[in-house]
């Protein structure tokens, strides 16, 4: 048993590294670890995962705050839609079989990943990266914003929040319903729709996740979907891993970070499709 717990702790470190690097909570990896390695009942695995994600997101947010890569204006507005989505998603698990929704969601993640892998930047500078999708979906964004991180790197962009806020509800719902942080949807929304550079999208996603995961986790707690000992075990690992991941992401080029995130999306999407097929 001690050996199994140590293995889970090591796995949790790697989950934290990956989660912080690409701006997700790590639930897509934690839920199968709990079900397959620890034998946790699926509903409890989902609820426990969200509690751990609060720790992952908080740890990553602290690291990204020090790096000055969080757009707090976007980060404060998004929870207005992700929080109700997260609560509704968590409550819905009580009544609806997740197989159909999981299958559709898995396919959607794969499509998003393919979009991120094949899209080309319109601007030459990584600091001004934005997508054609954000310009087509949401004309007339806010005035140009400039953010300078701790290392003096300048990010210039024009955030477009209208459609981003509409889509943010789906990220919150996915968080509560599937036990994931919602970053698998939030990062593409922030990058492709709102227009944040990928480094800022990853950092801001983790900040938003603190709020959505907290409310989703509370709903699951009230329904009894929680295994406290695994929150401690997994939480310790992901907190350590998140600090390493945030520092690693800082050194990656935007194109490489985008590809890394797309790979995680494909993995997550395939896992969900397999789960939906039983």
Query: Could you list the spans in which at least 5 consecutive residues all have pLDDT below 50?
Result: 121-140
| Radius of gyration, whole Å | 17 Å
Any idea how many domains?
A: 1
What's the end-to-end separation, in Å?
Answer: 28 Å
Strand content: under 5%
Taking strands numbered 1, 2, ... along the chain, how are they ordered across the largest sheet?
Answer: 1-2
Give the overall average pLDDT.
81
Principal-axis shape: globular
Summarize the model shown.
The protein contains 12 helices and 2 strands, in the order H-H-H-H-H-H-H-E-E-H-H-H-H-H.
Can you tell me about this structure?
This protein is mainly alpha-helical and 278 residues long. The chain has one domain (2-276). The protein is built from 12 helices and 2 strands, in the order αααααααββααααα. The chain has a two-stranded antiparallel sheet. A hairpin with a 5-residue loop joins strand 1 (145-148) and strand 2. The longest helix has 26 residues, at 42-67. The radius of gyration is 17 Å and the shape is globular. The two termini are 28 Å apart. Residues 121-140 have low confidence and may be disordered.
């Amino acid at each position: 048993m001690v050996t199994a717990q140590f293995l889970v702790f090591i796995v949790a470190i790697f989950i934290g590294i990956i989660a912080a690097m690409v701006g997700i909570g790590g639930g897509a990896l934690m839920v199968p670890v709990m079900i397959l390695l620890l034998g946790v009942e699926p509903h409890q695995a989902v609820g426990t995962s969200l509690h751990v994600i609060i720790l992952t997101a908080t740890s990553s947010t602290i690291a990204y705050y020090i790096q000055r890569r969080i757009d707090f204006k976007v980060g404060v507005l998004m929870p207005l839609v992700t929080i109700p989505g997260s609560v509704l998603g968590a409550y819905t698990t009580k009544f609806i079989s997740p197989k159909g929704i999981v299958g559709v969601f898995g396919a959607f993640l794969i499509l998003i990943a393919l979009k991120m892998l094949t899209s080309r930047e319109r601007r030459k500078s990584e600091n001004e990266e934005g997508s054609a999708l954000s310009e087509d979906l949401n004309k007339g964004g806010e005035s140009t914003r400039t953010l300078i991180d701790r290392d003096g790197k300048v990010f210039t962009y024009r955030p477009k929040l209208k459609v981003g806020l509409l889509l943010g509800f789906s990220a919150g719902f996915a968080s509560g319903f599937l036990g994931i942080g919602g970053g698998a949807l939030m990062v593409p929304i922030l990058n492709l729709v709102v227009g944040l550079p990928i480094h800022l999208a990853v950092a801001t996603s983790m900040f938003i996740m603190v709020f959505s995961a907290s409310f989703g986790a509370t709903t699951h707690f009230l329904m009894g979907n929680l295994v406290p000992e695994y929150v401690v075990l997994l939480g310790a690992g992901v907190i350590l891993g998140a600090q390493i991941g945030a520092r690693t992401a800082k050194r990656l080029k935007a194109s490489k970070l985008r590809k890394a995130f797309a790979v995680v999306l494909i993995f997550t999407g395939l896992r969900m499709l397999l789960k939906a097929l039983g």
